[in-house]
Design a protein that fits this description.
Structural class: alpha/beta
Strand order of the largest sheet: 14-13-10-8-9-16-17-25
Radius of gyration: 24 Å
Bound molecules: 5'-O-[(S)-butoxy(hydroxy)phosphoryl]adenosine
Strand content: 15-25%
Oligomer: single chain
Number of helices: 19
Amino acid sequence: MSQESFAPVTGDWYYPAPEIVRDANIPDYEAVAQEAQADLQAFWAKQAEQLDWFKRWDQVMDDSQAPFYKWFVGAQTNIAHNALDRHARTWRRNKLALIWEGEPGDKQTFSYWRLWREVNKFANVLKSMGVNKGYRVTIYMGRIPELVMAMLACAKIGAVHSVVYGGFSEQALADRIEDAQSRVLITADGAWLRGNIVPLKETVDEAVHRSPVVESVIVVKRTGQEVNMEQGRDYWYHDLANLPIASPICETEVMDAEDPLFILYTSGTTGKPKGILHTHGGYQVYTSTTLSWVFDIKDHDRWWCAADPGWITGHSYIVYGPLILGATGLLYEGAPNYPYPNRWWKMIEDYGVTILYTAPTAIRGLMRFGDAWPNRHDLSSLRLLGSVGEPINPEAWRWFHRVIGKERCPIMDTWWQTETGGFMITPLPSVGLKPGSATRPFPGVEVDVVDEHGESCAPGIDGNLVIKTPWPSMLRTIYGDPDRFVNQYWTAYKEQGWYLTGDSARKDEDGYLWIIGRNDDVIKVSGYRLGTAEVESGLVSHPAVAEAAVIAVPDEVRGNVIYAYCIPRTGFAPNDQLIDEIKQHIRHEVGPIAVPSKIEFTETLPKTRSGKIMRRVLKARATGQPEGDLSTLEE
Ligand code: WT7
């Protein structure tokens, strides 16, 4: 990049200040991208050498059974060793690993030493409950340090964690327990949210009732409220942690690089959630490299990824990536606007946060409260900002850049998925930005926008976003369903061997990528991923609903909201009370995020002759757009 292009803004371009480029971990994107392109395996081997391995790999990547790729074949490692054990032996033992703030204002800090000991204890508790290598443990908690500890404890002993976001309902939790066949579940007595207690344990009781495969429930005390404890099944964590068995020393299990680390469920085209499987070796290399390069992590940084550890963003960039890098990270339990809309800005000032990574929906939500709230705080510690989860509209981008970043902090708009494990299309701090574009692929990642035949689309033309080269943290399979894995991601461009992302996108003349959104039956509400089929099957499980179709309708803050169209069963009179009842039903069956903002009763749904609901037609009607080609509509 030439010197004169360092003006902060030129037209639609935003360039980083010279000192940001000078101090960046990767000052020259082109050079590194070329290095990766020249020899992908050598490139990833070089990054892997930054980490500890109990045994080195024989082969960097094995594609002989593609799309079942393997990375660092023959290597032995454990991600918990790289995230904790190795730091506990160096000066880093004294560094803060985690700064935590509860919503009511209580605080805790964990040095690497303390976190390491706590994780060892937790690991010993799990072992005493019979959890061994390969066992699946479901974790259902709020944003408290014990959630991070529970994940790392599983990794340490070779168990596979399945974290279910604490905002999910009993049925969603039961389905995930069932699919993973978890015999042990870790939860808390509750979580603080907007001054209220989320009754996690009640939800767990109901879920375990529906999915009785769970034998033991470990309950962390968070709120202190009275909860039901079932004799012989439920145990307080603090009781177990006080037993002699819970020693603060625990040997780390030696894992093969390809041994599973976790399952994380996400929505797809059918009602059944997909258990995305990630492994120890490739995932640790990819998450740490991407975090270091994209967010430029330095030892003096205070990194705040404001996501929930229950999503992939939290797995990769609250828990594993930052700890592997030996960074200091923040975790906050509650809502951004509680008790007032300055909560986040106050925390940035209090803790001297240097990097804030959040989602467009949160930015838009906070933007609505006006500039005065952030302006009351000293945000000068901030150096970089980040966004993830859905396309960020230029208006929100500019507000974030101007009001929060004071036109000084570049915004890393990172495109990726649960399936990819880490950032795929993203700027680095040294590159020029265009508001609303995630810019270009991370070094070593080759993507394209193609038509249905696999022909590359010209600039400005929409097409399918595909990934053409394998990468270390790619999902290995869908847990228990390898056929679905192949069909979902690897069949559309089978001949070419490309990964289908499910997103539509376009390139511009500069080769920058613009994500348009999902082009499958997935809806993003406040950045959360929901399958239309999940919401629809929730709707028809209500006795008054015979048939249902849901669509996404654009919303200023949440990106999209859900509209539902229901055909009533005979004998049910559609009225407001019934609508409220159905909303309540969805809250329980799917979760609060899935509750439609509008439910409309109708006598028919537009369908094709083959019986497929034409959501496009419903959407056009809902948004007042032309209905387009109706030739396939059934009479
Ligand atoms: C889908 C994946 C990856 C962590 C959070 C979401 C959308 C994600 C961006 C972005 C435009 C984005 C895509 C993608 N998405 N990041 N920066 N710009 N769209 O993970 O729940 O697996 O969702 O989120 O549609 O396919 P996820």
